[in-house]
Amino acid sequence: MNFTDPGARPVAVTPLFENIPEELRLRAQWVGWSFVRKDEDERWAKIPFNARTLKYAKTNNSRSWSTFIEAMAAFKRGGLDGIGYVFSSDDEYAGIDLDNCLDAEGSITSPLAREWANKLQSYTEKSPTGTGLHVIVKAVVGAGLKRGGIELYDRARYFTVTGYRVGDEEREIHSRQKLVDKLKSILTPDRPPKVEHQQATIDDVPPEQASSNGKPATPPVTVDEMLEVILRSKQAAKFSQLNDGDDSEYDSPSEADQALCSIAVFWDESGVLVDEVFRRSARMRPKWDVVHNGNGETYGQMTIATALRGCTKFYNWAAAGDDYLADDVKPEKAGGEISFITNLHDFIGADYGSGDEVAFHLCRGEVGIIQSVTNQCKSTMVRNALLCVAAGKPFPPLTQSNQPLKVVLLNYEGAGGRFQNDIQTMLQVFTENELETLRENFFISHAPEIDDEPLSLSRSMNLFEAELRKLASSDSKSSL
């Protein structure tokens, strides 16, 4: 979590939406954010908010994210300080945060930040308060890292996004895997040999995980692999907060140290990898290796031992189930996956299951359906997608093409102010040339009032066909 100094409420710049990379704008991984603090003694935190509900957003729960259009509209309505992009294991992006490296004139004061901003040569922008830089690249980071004013993340975290680019040459997002790997190696300090923890003996260790000396065996994974699983789990948000050095929810740093280890030992009942996890975290300090009692135990050994004694259930790596993964990162269950159907007969007979998340079923060249419970922004997503298709802007998974297509939107939700306002808000992200293309290709037909009879698929198709015939028989012009 990013913090500014205590005192007066910080002032953030108004985002330059048109400067934000289009490939990010097309992804539904956006949140709003605002400066928040609990009392006058705390520092101001940049807290993410759901752009649709204005409730707290979670970086490990995609249900609380929104489209770029929704985030932009929420900001313009007021009550937010900016918008942000959530990095996910489902995308190819990673962020490098170069904190507190700019002076009042915007010059880079940190030699390390200057060196890496120049090396990465990817999309770079100023932070909301103008004191830091954010660089977005295409790379895999794995476990997040925070060292000396530099942070690296590629999942379960969000970056505030301002559009205040640094240098015209850094408009695009480039692949920088080798450079990111090198930066990680530089920021990760050499670590002393791992410490054995006598208190780690557990009687009920599964046979496949027990070592010959009776102690729990070290998990059959590397630290990076274990961290990868933790960051996909239900504990990801809390773990990330503690791992980044945030003590704000605890009375002391020691309590926060204990909380981090208590999360980590669930995944490592030997305690060996937990020591490695802590040493990589922003919480690591000399105190970890200082002897704290008469038997020679260090503060770190005591903290891990306490965490192990308090954990009554451990993750079974041999079984490797997904019960502890967050709902939005578990494998898709039957009825919730994207499916392709090649003809209308199969489409009508398909069983799409149920659920509270949007299920998008796309039929190549035929019919596509989006279904969910109410208030999941189906209409907004469809309108945004169709506008992109008509303007020749890629909108996965509908199209990857830059070739504009003719689009007819048959609207059953009324032609009132809300519908018109939504369309006008969406149009703000298109260039003048794209708007001209839209005027040639995008048609809106407001359907007549329909009775209370259920709107079945076959009835929808008949109504849609009738509206198309009306459009075809008239000298139709775009509704934009």
Structure commentary:
The chain is α+β, with helices and mostly antiparallel strands and 480 residues long. It folds into three domains: 17-187; 198-310; 377-473, no CATH class. The chain is 30% helix and 13% strand. It has 14 helices and 13 strands. The chain has helices spanning 22-25, 68-77, 111-120, 177-187, 223-230, 236-243, 253-265, 272-280, 299-310, 344-349, 378-391, 417-427, 432-441, 457-473, and strands at 30-36, 45-49, 82-87, 93-98, 123-126, 133-138, 145-147, 150-153, 157-161, 359-361, 369-371, 407-411, 442-446. It has a five-stranded antiparallel β-sheet with strand order 5-6-4-8-7, covered by helices on one side. Strands 2-1-3-9 form a four-stranded antiparallel β-sheet. Strand 1 and strand 2 form a beta hairpin. Helix 7 packs across helix 8 (272-280), helix 7 (253-265) packs across helix 9 and helix 11 (378-391) crosses helix 12. The longest helix is centred in the C-terminal third of the chain and has 17 residues, at 457-473.
In summary, what is this structure?
The protein has 480 residues and is α+β, with helices and mostly antiparallel strands. The chain has 14 helices and 13 strands.
